[in-house]
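Structure tokens please, single chain.
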Amino acid sequence: MKKYFVEFIGTFFLVFTIGNVVVVPGAGLFASGAGLFAPLAIGAVLTAMIYAGAHISGAHYNPAVTMAFWFRGKMKSGDVFPYMVTQVVAGVLAALAVMLVKGAPETLPMEISPLPALIAETLFTFALCLVILEVSTSKATQGNSYYGIAIGLTVMGGAYAVGSISGGAFNPAVAVGMIIMGIVDPSSIWIYLCANSIGGFFAPAIYKLIHSDE
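Here you go.
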């Protein structure tokens, strides 16, 4: 049970941080109201939460990552659905908490072009999942102390690179939270579900291809 609790906490604070730096009044003006330093805050909180929870739950905080771990053979089948449900519920509650903190502001959803957003979300979800598998499941990097930084920097870099294109979710739980907060339109949910699932599927496939000797 404690691993689900940790997954809830980590996902909650990830989405809560995203909402507070993006929803007006946020941290200045970046994509859709997000501040120039918003990706730094998001990457920092994710890094901290990973170091805090990795030894308990694996610190997925992302259904796509849970999928990648499962396909990699590092996740019990019985834990997959509970992990994903926990992450999405945490994202929903974090989004509602943001709305309470911000006073339920009216947020104009960012305009998303489906194809560019689909490509951006797929590629960076793939990159995120592959980095996580490399730094946390590979024999060559076993026992390293930089895994949290590597993962946090990947999310931060992705947010800077394509945040203005897709919102930079790379995570279905984050996408659901973004929709509740009004950052993106509900009609765009299919983009995130498809892109994040594709990224989470291909990352372990490529990992196994690279590490065929393991």
